[in-house]
Task: structure prediction
Amino acid sequence: MQKLQYITYLSCLLLFLSCGGDSDEPEEPKSPSAATLIFPLENSECTEGVISSPDADISVVTFEWNPSNNTDSYQLTIKDLGTTRTQTFDTQSAFQEVTLNRGTPYSWYVASVNSTTLESVVSETWKFYNADEGAISYPPFPADLIEPTPGSTLYSSNTTISFIWEAADIDNDIVGYNVFMGSNNPPTTSIADNTSEETLTYATPSAGLYYWLVKTTDSNGNVSTSEISQFKVE
Result:
C-alpha cells in the first residue's frame, strides 16, 4: 500500500513539474493588427478643428483611431492632397493633434508598430476636407490611379490598355473625368473628355515610357487633378 502511494505521489510530482516548466516558456511574439480609423471621417468635411488665433487659415484637428492588438506605438501619416506634402507623427496614444490648413483636402492612415517583431501594419487610408469658413462647395478629392500600376510594364502584344481610377466628392456631385496620357511629364494629350465612367479602354501606344493623370470635375465647375503615374510599353 505504501509503495502504491509513493508511486502515485511521484507521478503527480512529475506531472506538476512538467506543467510548471511549460508555463515558464516565453510566448512567441505576435504581429500587430491594423488600427481602425475613427476621426476625421472618410470623405467628409471636418468641422471640428480648433481655429488657431490669430491665424484663421489654420486649425488644430485631433486624429483618432481604435487601439490595435500587439502594438507598442503608432505612426500617423497625413498627406496634403493639393501639394502632396506628407507629415508623420509617432505616438503611443490612439490620438494625435495636428495643425492643418483650412479649406484643404487631406488623406491619412495609421501604421501599428510592434518593436519586438519589428513589424508594422497599415490601416485603411481615409480622405477629408479641413473645413473653411463660409465654404458651400468643395472640389472633388484628387482621383486615385489604380491601373496601370505605377512603374508597371505593359506589352504591345496586347492591343489595348485598361485605365482604372477611383474618385470621391463630399458633395456627391462629380459630373465627369478627363484623362490625359503622353510621353511628357506632365501629360497634356487628352485621351478621354468628360467621361462619366471610372474606367477607360485605350489602344496600346508604341514602345516607350508614358505618364497619365485624371482631372475630376463637379457640377459647380470645381476641378481636381490626380497625381501623375507612369508605365512602360515594350
